[in-house]
């Protein structure tokens, strides 16, 4: 694994730990945001490794997956698309109250677990 790829993965791991920290503090939609950031960095690590190029400054998982040519298992793929859609809402919230209702403790816990599963799968692709 190349050094730039390794750095993306280190940051992805740091961000999932941050998601757990935010979850413990009850900052659920920030935990979801950190899950998104974690997967984004892991996918950029794959991009860097497979294409031997600097990944573009995009936040779109589907774009990154298509560019790298990886194909996640169906269940994981559906989760990745769903988390991809949470990007805008958690990055630029229109209503704090609405986000707090949408990302409950139960929902966020499930997102964190699925993100960890996705991260493990991505690392296997390296």
List keywords for this structure.
Four Helix Bundle (Hemerythrin (Met), subunit A); 126 residues; 6 helices; 0% strand; mainly alpha
Describe the structure.
This protein has a single domain (3-124), classed as Up-down Bundle (Four Helix Bundle (Hemerythrin (Met), subunit A)). The protein is an all-alpha fold. The protein has helices spanning 3-24, 28-51, 61-68, 74-91, 96-102, 105-124.
Strand portion, in percent? under 5%
- Sketch the major β-sheet: none
**Rg over CA atoms:** 14 Å
Helix content: over 70%
Task: State the separation between the terminal residues, measured CA to CA.
Answer: 7 Å
Q: What spatial form do the alpha-carbon principal axes imply?
A: globular
Tally of discrete structural domains: 1
CATH top level is: Mainly Alpha
CATH fold topology: Four Helix Bundle (Hemerythrin (Met), subunit A)
N-to-C series of helices and strands = HHHHHH
Decide which structural class fits the backbone.
Answer: mainly alpha
Count of distinct strands: 0
Number of helices: 6
Let me know the CATH homologous superfamily.
Nucleotidyltransferases  domain 2
């Amino acid at each position: 694994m190349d050094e730039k790829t390794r750095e993306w993965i280190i940051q992805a791991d740091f961000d999932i730990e941050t998601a757990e920290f935010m979850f413990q503090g009850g900052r659920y939609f920030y935990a979801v945001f950190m899950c998104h950031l974690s997967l984004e960095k892991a996918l950029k690590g794959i991009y860097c490794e497979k294409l031997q190029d600097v990944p573009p400054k995009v936040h779109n998982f589907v774009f990154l997956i298509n560019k790298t040519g990886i194909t996640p298992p169906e269940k994981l793929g559906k989760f990745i698309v769903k988390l991809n859609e949470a990007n805008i809402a958690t990055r630029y919230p229109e209503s704090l109250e609405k986000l707090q209702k949408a990302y409950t403790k139960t929902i966020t816990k499930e997102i964190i677990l699925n993100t960890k599963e996705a991260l493990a799968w991505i690392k296997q692709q390296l």
